[in-house]
Amino acid sequence: MKILSGIQPSGQLHIGNYFGMMQTMISHMENAELYVFIVDLHALTSVHDREKLATGTLEAAADFLALGLDPDKCIFWVQSDVPEVCELTWVLSTLAPMGLLERCHSYKDKVAKGVASSHGLFSYPVLMAADILLYQAEKVPVGKDQKQHLEVARDIAIKFNNQYGDTFCVPEPAISETTATVPGIDGQKMSKSYGNTIPIFLEGKQLKKRVMSIETDATPVEDPKNPDNCNLYKIMNLFASTERMKEIHTLYVNGGAAYGYLKLELLDLLNDTFGEARKKKQEYLSDPASLRIILAKGAEKAREKASVTLDLVRDRVGLKY
Ligand code: ADP
Ligand code: TRP
């Protein structure tokens, strides 16, 4: 099974990214042909600061490795190191229906949040389709926000196959029910662009401040509360054991859940879960030359795969004469 997913280096990676995609990808290392990459070309649609993009790319790579991704058990690279993806994007863009792209929420949401509208931002889903189809991916683990982009990739693959004959594998999204949308500290979807994240690698006082600012209601401790509309409860549920969650659930329903104490408990859980990874990340970042070697080796492996598909595509559409 070919499993593929990418992540933008557009800011500090957060626990939404971890549960929505990174953890799933890492868990497939032993049982799949795994493709993991840092999508710097996508990030360029919102990051126009040289330092931020370049540093963000190395950091995102260090994050993945620190969390346990083994580059010998997968193909791990930076998107722009495989230029074949840009040629495929162009070919696919000549088939991608405007109406389909115009319906994409992500473009509209980003513009509404202040990202400058540009042709690149609009055609973002076509580049993403090229990312997926170039490697003939079968399954694509993502958070729920990416579901529509996966539908675009599937539509384009089907359209291409109908027009030119069977060429692309039609990919399936893999969206886990429990972690489809991790809420941010304000209860909206956790996202780098909303300023409401709990970054995986934040620590000390800054992390404590972030956790303590998770928004909760003003119900007194002894009163019953509804766990289903409490984002603290939903975040706790990602980290606490099943037994502990049962106890917490009872406290919510019967009264007695003290938000302040629960936040401190969550802080401990975050430190336990990510403490080791934080140290490892610093080790990777202290040796950027080795990190670049890992990524260059990954890109070499990815290019080999990419060139097989692109060669076929060029032939199918008539670019080979
Ligand atoms: P962001 O919205 O923070 O910029 P990305 O768009 O880079 O995050 O997302 C990278 C991956 O993480 C995608 O698969 C996305 O679906 C997933 N993801 C992002 N935010 C969340 C969230 N709050 N809950 C679940 N998955 C998420
Ligand atoms: N658009 C995805 C996001 O914002 C990132 C991405 C780019 C991606 N190319 C991909 C995800 C290919 C899965 C497969 O999260």
Describe it for me?
With 321 residues, the chain is mainly alpha-helical. It has two domains: 2-181 and 287-317, Rossmann fold (3-Layer(aba) Sandwich), CATH 3.40.50; 201-282, Tyrosyl-Transfer RNA Synthetase. It has 14 helices and five strands. The strands form two sheets. It has a three-stranded parallel sheet. β1 (2-7), α1 (15-27) and β2 (33-38) form a beta-alpha-beta unit. α3 crosses α13 and α11 (231-239) crosses α13. The longest helix has 30 residues, at 288-317. It is globular. The two termini are 34 Å apart. Bound molecules: adenosine-5'-diphosphate and tryptophan. Residues 4-8, 39, 42, 128, 131-132, 140, 142, 146, 149 line the site of tryptophan (TRP). Residues 7-8, 10, 16-17, 19-21, 142-143, 145-146, 179, 181-182, 189-193 line the site of adenosine-5'-diphosphate.
Give descriptors for this structure.
321 residues, mainly alpha, Rossmann fold, Tyrosyl-Transfer RNA Synthetase, 2 domains, two-stranded parallel sheet, globular, binds adenosine-5'-diphosphate, binds tryptophan
Q: What are the bound molecules?
A: adenosine-5'-diphosphate, tryptophan
Low-confidence stretches: none
Rounded mean pLDDT score: 96
Strand order of the largest sheet: 1-2-3
- CATH top level label of the largest domain: Alpha Beta
Number of helices: 14
Envelope shape:
globular
Strand content: 5-15%
Level-2 CATH architecture of the largest domain: 3-Layer(aba) Sandwich
| Helix content percent band | 55-70%
The total number of structural domains is 2
Label the structural class: mainly alpha
Query: What's the multimeric state?
Result: single chain
**N→C terminal distance:** 34 Å
Mind summarizing the main beta sheet? 3 strands, parallel
Q: Taking Cα atoms only, what radius of gyration do you get, to the nearest Å?
A: 21 Å
CATH topology of the largest domain, anyone?
A: Rossmann fold
CATH homologous superfamily label of the largest domain: HUPs
Total DSSP E strands: 5
N-to-C SSE string, H for helix and E for strand: EHEHHEHHHHHEHEHHHHH
